[in-house]
Amino acid sequence: MSRVKVFFNSSVNSKIVASLAGLGLTGFAIFHMLGNLQVFEGSDAINGYASILRDMPILLWTARMGLLIVAGLHIGLVIRLALRNRQGRPVAYAVRRYRAASVASRTMVLTGSLLLFFIIFHLLHLTAGLIDASAPDGLDIQGRVDVYGKIIHAFRNPLYVGIYFVGQLALGLHLSHAISSGLQTLGIEHAALNRLFKLAGSGIALFVVLGNLSIIFAVFLGLIRA
Ligand code: HEM
Which among 119, 104, 106 has a CA at the least distance from the CA of 201? Predict the structure, then answer.
């Protein structure tokens, strides 16, 4: 058996890599939201920011490939671990005991699946421009991709506001449990720390979701316009 196979045959190793990958994706979600907040500074700020990576195609594609590998690792390992857990417990519990478990922890599969659908939709919508035929796929006056125009056009439409709102609910619930449980998996576990991690998980999730929602609703309510 190859070393990689031996390594991933261990559920503990798989859990650690899945958690590290999940925390990496959380980092991306935070930076992506902070970057997108530049829409409040106007088209020059956000289009300039988006063009930094686009002007360096090698860096852009390395980052994209890295993100894809990390997301693939996270999803693949989590599904494999869940299937293994099921195989280890072929008879379902007669009574499910949810007393100590939060809504977020009980709905990880649902929110994770919703999040995956949302991200695929989002890439087809705002990166590839394949969903909305009426969206501008143009450049700004400086010849940069008009990310500002894409965002304004998208969130003037209540349909996209609704879809992104559901995506944010899934993101918030998923992150709020994932951050604390990921940190615990990495072996940082202590009664007092666990409470702190739960607080940090909810706080970071709320920060990311409120940041994203502020963009969506600022456009929808006409506070930012073309
Ligand atoms: C209101 C919330 C969001 C807004 C306004 C937004 C905006 C955008 C825009 C405009 C792009 C295209 C950038 C370009 O063409 O250069 C983009 C790309 C992307 N977004 Fe979002 N996004 C949001 C939420 C999210 C969330 C929650 C995730 C995942 C956790 C996400 C993941 C991505 C990814 C992976 C890309 C592709 C980056 C690339 O390879 O160019 N976005 N987003």
Answer: 104
Question: CA–CA separation, 36 vs 151, rounded Å?
Answer: 9
Decide: helix, strand or coil at residue 139: strand
Q: What's the CATH number where 91 sits?
A: 1.20.1300
Q: Ligand 1: which residue has its CA nearest to atom 43?
A: 126
Task: Find the 107 Cα to ligand 1 centroid distance in Å.
Answer: 24
| Nearest atom, ligand 1, residue 25 CA | 30
Cα–Cα distances (Å) from 66 to 33, 53, 187, in that order, read 19, 14, 25
Q: Which atom of ligand 1 is nearest to the CA of 28?
A: 30
- Kindly report the backbone phi and psi dihedral angles of residue 145, in degrees, each rounded to the nearest multiple of 5, phi listed first: -60, 130
Query: Residue 36: inside a domain, yes or no?
Result: yes
Segment 170-225, tens digit of pLDDT: 999 999 999 988 888 887 777 788 888 889 999 999 999 999 999 999 999 999 98
Give the number of domains in the chain.
1
Expressed as residue numbers, the domain containing 157 is 3-220
Distance of CA 78 to the CA centre of its chain: 15
pTM of the model: 0.91
